[in-house]
Every structure is written in C-alpha cells, then in structure tokens.
Amino acid sequence: MYRSEFDKLVSQNKRFDAYMFYGQSNFLIDYYATKISLLHGSKDEIEKIYFGDYDFKYLKDKLLQSSLFSSNNIVLLKLDKKLQKKECDELIAACNQNPDSVLIISCLGDIEFKTMEKSFTDGDNSVVVRMFPLIPNEAVKMLEQKAIELGMNFELNALNHLFFMHKHDMSLCMNDLQKLAILKEKIDSNVVNAHCFGIGGVNFEDFLFDLISAKDVSEDLFMLLEEGMNEVYLLNQIQSFVQQLFMISAYARSFGQANPKEILGFVPPKNIWEKKSKLAISIKPQNFLEIFDFLTALELELKSGKMKNQDIYLQASLRKFQVLFR
C-alpha cells in the first residue's frame, strides 16, 4: 500500500504482526521502520539485525519464543538483498504464532524487493508499504511535525531554510532539528545559519536555478556528482523543481499573482519565492510538456542501467537539455 493509506491505518491504532518497508526513499524507509518499532515497544525491547548479520534459524527461533525480560519481542531487520520466499513466509508465520513477536523489515538499496510482497497478506496480518521520495511541501510538513513533537518554538521559514540548506537531505534536517531543540530561543533563519551547516561546496538551489536558466552549470554538476550525489536522485530533484515552476506558472496565468501557500503548501523565503516565480513565468507554457518528456525519458535511461558511466551520461544529457530549452 501507499504511505498515505498506511498513515491512516496507524492513526486508527491498527497494528500488524509483520511489516515491510521498501521503495525509492531510504530516509522514509528508515524513518517508518524506527517509528513503527517504537509503537510496539520501548528501545530496550527492539533487537536490530543488520544486513550480513541475518541468520534465518536464529531469527525464526527468536520470533517463536517470547522474551524472558520483556513483554514485547520486536525485531527490526535491515536488508540489502531479498529474502527467499520460503524464509519470509516462515518468519511471518512465526509472528502469527507468537502474539508477543513483531517483525519489521527495512529494505534498502537498489535491489528489486517487489517479489517479497507476495509473502505479506491480510490473512497473515502483515503489510507492505512502498515509499516514494518526498516532494518539498511534504518534507517541510514532516519537519514541522517533528519540531512540534520536540516542543520547539520556530518559524516555518526556518524549516524551509534548513531543508534547502541541506539540499533536501531529510536525515541531516532531522538531526539538526534535534540539536536546535536544545536551544531555549525561537528558531528563525538566522539561528539556523548560526548553528547548522549545509553540505558540500555547491548551493543546490542555485544550481537548479542556473540549470533551468541555461547558465553554465558544468563545474557545479561535476562537484555534486563528485560529492557522491546519486544520478537518479539528482534528476528527481530537477523534476521536482520543474514541477514547482509549472504549478507556479499555471496558477499565475489562471488566477493572477501566485500564492505560494496554495501552490506549494508552505511559504518559502521571500527571495527564493520571487526568484522562482520570475523563472516560472519566463518559460512558455507549451515548453513544460517537452521538458517533462525529456526528463522522464532520461530517468528511464538511467534506471535501465545500460550505460557504463551514468554520471558522464547525465552531464552530457543536461548540457543537451539546456541547449534544447534555453
């Protein structure tokens, strides 16, 4: 199922014997696996088993036997490769047999985990949740909810600023929220600047503006890839940025002055919003479909894995993109 449907079930206090989280967002997979494990018990009741430490016999025996030291028997299993169907079926059956046991599987990496879904059924009280990358307004909303949980006094603009500072890296944002929560003062953009530091040598927001504005981004693109940014992730961020520009353009042409709260779901810093609005209006409406088609085709090519050097291919393709749509 999708995350929104799962969130609704969780809010209704629905609990499962076994969970599987997988998809295109490692942050959300980790975030939900940890969140759900803590819904079932305390940190001391959770045993974490990571990757190469997986032992089928040990795990099955553990799930079948209740803990001597606590009322809950929770296992958080992180995988970077698929489980055999027979093993997956037996682990879920063990959770069904022992009401104290819960299995939470966090599937990370580029491996195709979809075939494991067949082991998780309503009849076994188990669930699979597929995660997709957060769009910016979803990400900022999640940061806002976390800040409220931490009892922080904050300005929403500060969370937007933190999100852009860390180039949409939610793990870094969440870590910094924990640090900022210690401060006994209102958190605004100046406080974020004073206590948090963006990653890498390239301002990612500036890179996106320069790319769409057909400015030379060769050096910045090279640095982003050298810093370890994944090619597909980078392309997804470009697609998300163009999607925002399209929504701004469509809104402005239909209703007049664009309203950031209605379009994005949050209010970005004033300078970023004005710059983004100006860029959106400068793009001809008929060009957006061609841009989306180009980026979608490029994403498909990258995910096919047919080219030997994806970063060089991406650099060449984005240079072509700038020539076609400047």
Write up this protein.
The chain folds into 3 domains: 3-131, P-loop containing nucleotide triphosphate hydrolases (Rossmann fold, 3-Layer(aba) Sandwich); 136-195, Orthogonal Bundle (Helicase, Ruva Protein, domain 3); 204-325, Up-down Bundle (Zinc Finger, Delta Prime, domain 3), CATH 1.20.272. It is an alpha/beta fold. The chain contains 15 helices and 5 strands. The protein has a 5-stranded parallel beta sheet with strand order 2-3-4-1-5, with helices on both faces.
Radius of gyration: 22 Å
Distance between the termini: 40 Å
Q: What is the total domain count?
A: 3
The main sheet comes to: 5 strands, parallel
Identify the CATH homologous superfamily of the largest domain.
P-loop containing nucleotide triphosphate hydrolases
CATH topology of the largest domain: Rossmann fold
Strands in their spatial order, largest beta sheet: 2-3-4-1-5
Kindly estimate the percentage of residues that lie in beta strands according to DSSP. Answer: 5-15%
CATH architecture of the largest domain: 3-Layer(aba) Sandwich
> Any idea what the shape is?
globular
Number of helices: 15
Task: Draw up the topology in text.
Layout: H1 3-11, E1 18-23, H2 26-40, E2 46-50, H3 56-64, E3 73-79, H4 85-97, E4 101-107, E5 126-131, H5 136-149, H6 156-165, H7 170-180, H8 189-195, H9 204-212, H10 218-226, H11 231-255, H12 260-264, H13 270-282, H14 285-304, H15 310-325
Parallel strand pairs: 1-4, 1-5, 2-3, 3-4
